Predict the 3D structure of the following.
Amino acid sequence: MGDREEDPQRLKKIAAAAYDYENDHRWADYWSNILIPPHMASRSDVRDHFKRKFYQRFIDPELMVEPMSMGSSSQPAKQTSSSSSSSSAASEQPRARNSGSTATRTSGASATSGPTPAPTSLRWDRQTIQFSVNAWVFVVAVLAIFPIIPRNLSNRAYRLSFMGTACSSLYSLYSLYGKPRAWNLQVVQAWFQSVIATKDFIYFMYCLMFVSSHLYLKVALIPILCRALEHVAKFLRHNFTRSSLYRKYLEEPCVWVESNVTTLNILSSHTEIGLGFLLIISLLSWQRNIIQTFMYWQLLKLMYHAPVTAGYHQSVWSKIGRTVIPLVHRYAPFLNTPLSAIQRWWFR
């Protein structure tokens, strides 16, 4: 009976291990939003564990995922228990068994309480900093959008929202990837290639383009609000589940946010693409900024090709293409040549 019950789980684990995660845009987004220390993110067993959790969440909810075992803390426990039992056996042979078992329990407790808090406290510090910054960004961005706020205060909150998100993204990049090992061209180029397609780098560039602009587009705060809301909800869900205040007022909104991350990403991608067309329209006004418009469309091109955002942006662009291209063929065929040139640049 036990083999029959375990056999479906074994098949599910094989299917989860064979799943093509790299071609699923949801996996790249899921992995980029997991906050773990860099030394753990590089471990294959940690990555495989989160792949199984991703498979359980999005593909097969019936897959059972065991909790991740901390193999690094078992070795100190064994060494401490063996040394304690050997010393107790040498000093008091009649009480060897009792002292050995006591030493094993004591050393096991000290091993679990000793080495473990170091990575936990590091992870807690990083998550707490990100939570504080993103909560502050969320509040300031809401003030910037709120219509009854005075204009000068709203504009200041608008800039502070982008500055806070830029600092949060830069801190996340530094925490995950560090800085280049050397300041020569090859090493810096290799480091830049490793971070250019990440979500944090994309948001950092996004914020830089709007924080320095004289054009106040409040709709540009929507992706910032979605990002901050996602980080805040994830932190509250993982760290305040025992709080009565959280369970009473915040649990349902946080659960809704975590279950609708895809919806928030779709909203952000629509907004980001719409901003590109707004910047083109702004070229007709006195507040035009040709350099900002050109750089923003370069960023949109990066969002189209980067794995963490490609799925959402490609879906929006395909909808635009299905609507616009037939109209161009029918009513403005002279635009076919420039559109073809733009498409060659876009897909290059």
User: Anything to note?
Assistant: The CA atoms of residues 202 and 299 lie 7 Å apart. The two ends are 57 Å apart (CA to CA). Residues 1-5, 71-123 have pLDDT under 50 and may be disordered. The longest helix spans residues 117-145.
